[in-house]
Specification:
Layout (H helix, E strand, L loop, with lengths): L1 H10 L4 H6 L5 H7 L11 H6 L6 H4 L10 H4 L30 E5 L2 E7 L23 H13 L5 E6 L7 H12 L6 E5 L2 H4 L6 H7 L5 E7 L8 H12 L3 E7 L8 H13 L3 E6 L14 H14 L7 E4 L8 E2 L6
Parallel strand pairs: 2-3, 3-4, 4-5, 5-6, 6-7, 7-8
Antiparallel strand pairs: 1-2, 8-9
Helix pairs in contact: 8-10, 12-13
């Protein structure tokens, strides 16, 4: 009997919290998982101290063993270039601290605002524009969130709230459900948008508990995923999207244009096709936000426009994401090119 119980325990899939807690946080361990030697890459332990390495094992499993140029590895590996200053790159490239009226809120756009629901992420992407964000100043308990809810209630022009972070889905479902319910009690809010990379890197995050609270209120729920390369999509990700779609949730994707990861029309076209195949609509293709530590991912605006023009020639219009740049002070994303039908 004990042997049978042990066998059954092995077959049980780990919860998302277990996978979250078991993320790889060491350069040496990450390279060992991929059978790579430190000398093959310009890694930097200093960069990892400045912005810790964090990679979920389900995401590592999608990387190519033995390939130092793997596009998924490039997104998470701390490298020497991160420690070198670059002109035009800063700790607050979008000037979000100017749009932080009360703790927990970033209000840059007129009719919608972001709630910094969680300071944590399942994965620390090296190009993250909030890698220097003052999360400690925006930590909230339920009592403190009342100030943010009061702000939303008084701002009649707002009709959409966006859960952001960090990664909002790093928070517990009980808290997220409570917060969604409080927002739903504000009459002028119509939609709840959730921006998260966690369901991509740990697909088990989309479980019954999440689906229950996300669809429990009158608010229209929208999930915006963050996938940069077609290799990030596997059967587990496809199943995760199917769970969202089965509950009637619109599922969109935003991508960041990254040198050495997806800076070609062929890679981006394949990504859009793969997204559509699993039921996700390509939404935004972002030019890199100039955050300190990420200059090695940057490509020129001219090159981005060239890639985009090529992409438009390879895809039907409904599969072409909008090419945008975020400019501090603007009331919306700035379109960099018109989409062709």
């Amino acid at each position: 009997m004990p042997a049978i119980i042990a066998s059954q325990a092995i077959d049980i899939q780990p919860s998302w919290k277990t996978e979250f807690s078991q993320c790889v946080s060491s350069i040496d361990e990450l390279l060992a998982c991929l059978q790579l030697k430190p000398g093959q890459l310009a890694t930097s332990h200093q960069a990892a101290r400045d912005f810790p390495l964090r990679v979920p094992r389900p995401f590592i499993e999608r990387m190519e063993v033995g390939n130092p140029n793997d596009p998924l590895l490039a997104q998470v590996l701390p490298v020497l270039q991160e420690t070198q200053p670059a002109v035009g790159f800063s700790s607050d490239p979008l000037e979000e601290t100017r749009h932080n009226p009360v703790p927990g809120i970033v209000h840059k756009y007129g009719n919608r605002l972001l709630l910094i629901v969680s300071p944590s992420c399942a994965i620390n992407c090296r190009y993250c524009f909030r890698r220097h964000f003052p999360y400690q100043e925006n930590r909230q308990n339920k009592e403190q969130w009342q100030q943010a809810l009061l702000y939303i209630g008084k701002s009649k022009e707002i009709n959409e709230v966006i859960f952001s972070g960090g990664d909002p889905l790093a928070a517990n479902d009980s808290f997220l459900g409570w917060l969604a319910e409080q927002i739903a009690n504000i009459p002028h809010i119509k939609r709840l948008r959730i921006h998260s990379r966690l369901p991509v890197v740990i697909p088990s995050r989309i479980d019954e508990s999440f689906l229950s609270w996300a669809t429990a209120t009158r608010l229209v729920p929208i999930m915006v995923l963050h996938i940069n390369h077609g290799n990030e999509i596997n059967p587990s990700v496809a199943d995760m999207v199917q769970k969202l779609s089965a509950k009637g949730m619109l599922v969109l994707n935003q991508t960041v244009l990254l040198k050495g990861v997806n800076d070609s029309s062929e890679v981006l076209a394949q990504l859009s096709e793969s997204l559509y195949d699993i039921g996700v609509t390509p939404y935004y293709l972002h030019l890199l936000d100039p955050v300190a530590g990420a200059s090695h991912f940057d490509i020129s605006q001219q090159r981005a426009l060239q890639i985009y023009a090529q992409l438009q020639g390879e895809l039907p219009g409904f599969l072409v994401p909008k090419l945008v740049r975020e400019i501090p002070g603007e009331k919306s994303k700035t379109l960099m090119a018109k989409k062709k039908i």
